[in-house]
Amino acid sequence: MKNTMSNTVTALIEIVEREAWLDLAVAAPADYVKSSKVSYTRLGAIVGIADLGVPITEFNRIFGLGIEKAVNEEELDQAISWMNEHATPTYALQVSPNALPETKLTEWIIARGFKNVGNGLAKFYRCSRLVEDHAIPTTLDVRLVEPHNAEEFGRVAQAGFGLPPTVIPYLSAIVGRPNWKAYIAYDGDIPVAAGAMYMDNNWAWLGIDATLPDYRGRGAQSALIKQRLLSGIKAGVIGFTAETGQPPEGQESTNKSYNNYHRAGFTKAYVRQNYKLEG
After folding, report:
1. Which residue range or ranges hold the N-acetyltransferase domain (predicted)?
2. pLDDT band at 70 (very low <50, low <70, confident <90, very high)
3. Domains of the chain
């Protein structure tokens, strides 16, 4: 998909997400780092994160290729070398449409044995305009997570994503951390859904959106999105971003996560592709 956003807005979208994931890795508890082999690196504008204990793309990928400046082949090789040493073999190099140098970057990546896999990630953008009431009301109660309830946040996110229980301390570590706000949606006193927001330089990334299977379709994520928008605007955020898997062409209307962000006033800015090693 051709990027209809300016290079500047694309860069801001990519940067705030990059910094959120880097900070999540930095915050990982020492015991989790040791047991799951969490590692991270910053190579100029490029950031790599790795987690051998959770062998999925979200926890093993490269951010920022060609975003703040054009990448050269030496820098690309350095990033790939680091990932080969630290990450699970299923790691991804993520490339936005405006990554520089245009055309050459993807050619270099493919020449090194990578191929474009899947439909990519739909990256969403929203400015700080008025937040409207959602079309799907909910009886669930959204609350800011305090440090004494951090594990509750991690447990809901882990269960909602279907990740191993060992990841709970990792996801819990953002609660109470500077730049982060974490929320839980409750059914009475039962925590049923989670969502987080990372804010930096008046931009915010919304992520870690997870709902327990029995509570899906009850408006939890819509309520969590609304609360984060209101909180972010109050804190001075001028631009919000989030992402979800890009559905197959023509099937966007059937994807709940995709629709949740559209209904909340987000626009799909572009699709970011995943490049993985063949075989």
Report:
1. 140-279
2. very high
3. 7-121 (no CATH), 141-270 (3.40.630.30)
